Amino acid sequence: MELININYITDKFYNFSTSSIKKINSDYMKSAVMCLFLENDNKVYILLTKRSQNLSNHAGEICFPGGKVEKSDKDPLDTALRETFEEVGVPRDKIKVIGQLDDYITGTGFHISTFVGILKSNRKLFMNEREVSELIYLPIDILKDKENFIWSFKKFGNKKYKFWKINYFDYNIWGATASIIVSLASKIFINK
Which of 34, 55, 72, 163 is most buried, with most CB under 10 Å away? Predict the structure, then answer.
């Protein structure tokens, strides 16, 4: 059995060409997120946040650090790094960006660019409580078992949406975040 550590994750992303990333052209609201890996006590985690109930969009939902692309951002990666610092206090020089996932369009009109990074050092994270109500450390082991990925549907208004859902303790990880995690798992655990 192969040890899943930060080096394993990094190696998996070095094997993917940036030309294989699915880019989408759209007029949807551009946003970017950081799928940030960290290691603690020889275990690998993905950092997720629970959005504050006070936010106007997606309040209380679980997501990656990230947000809307601002005019002052050079590109979507700049957005993901800026938002990660604003939400959880990780400066850009403490993140080693190792890759990118396919673009994702949400049913609510967002165009998400997802970047993958490694936290370079164990540092204490903080929450910007205006935006984040909780930090969630999702163990990478959850991604190894496909039984943890549940294909679901829900009706919003008159429209039926299909989406991925991941149950982790009492956390309801669903929609774009779960879809991105499923895509991530297919890259990390390909041929497993």
Answer: 34
Domain that holds residue 72: 6-144
Q: Rounded to an integer, what distance in angstroms lies between the CA atom of residue 143 and that of residue 67?
A: 24
Count of structural domains within the chain = 1
pLDDT in tens, 109-140: 889 999 999 998 877 888 888 888 899 999 99
pTM above 0.85, yes or no: yes
